[in-house]
Design brief:
Blueprint: E1 4-6, E2 9-11, H1 15-27, E3 32-35, E4 51-53, E5 56-60, E6 66-74, H2 80-99, E7 105-113, H3 123-131
Parallel strand pairs: 6-7
Antiparallel strand pairs: 1-2, 3-6, 4-5, 5-6
Helix pairs in contact: 1-2
Length: about 130
């Protein structure tokens, strides 16, 4: 059953619930180091009209229609397109299973790549991008 209305009354699912589901579903995917702390300019530069929390945003387009935006850090050595696709599929599946909401899209920004050591970020990549 989708949120909305049933014979007993109205069903509303808050953005915070959608964000929590998206965060957990993202972290379940092999190759994801963590969810990034925020959004960079570019893909998510229009966040003014969205509800966002620590790297996950929800854009509402009506009560039943949402778009999920996720910023993440992937582990060094993974195939980034495969990890992103797995994140998109898992977030969509979990959101539909738990809430009945089918997202219009799950947009992903890979903000950083971790080094082989846990939690470290490849500073050389950051420095090189500053030089360009």
């Amino acid at each position: 059953m989708r949120p909305g209305r049933n014979e007993y009354g109205e069903i509303k699912i808050h953005n915070e619930v959608i964000i929590a589901i998206a965060r957990r579903a993202t972290l379940e995917v092999e190759g994801v180091e963590k969810i990034a702390s925020g959004f960079r300019k570019g893909l998510f530069s229009f966040l003014g009209r969205k509800k966002f929390f620590r790297g996950v945003a929800v854009e509402r387009e009506g009560e039943q229609e949402v778009r999920i935006l996720i910023s993440l850090v992937v582990k060094f050595g993974v195939n980034i397109p495969e990890v992103v696709k797995a994140v998109q599929e898992n977030v969509k599946r979990k959101l539909e299973e738990i809430t009945g909401i089918i997202p219009l899209g799950v947009d992903v920004e890979v903000e950083k790549i971790s080094s082989e050591g846990p939690g470290e970020v490849l500073e050389s990549i950051k420095e090189k991008s500053k030089e360009d």
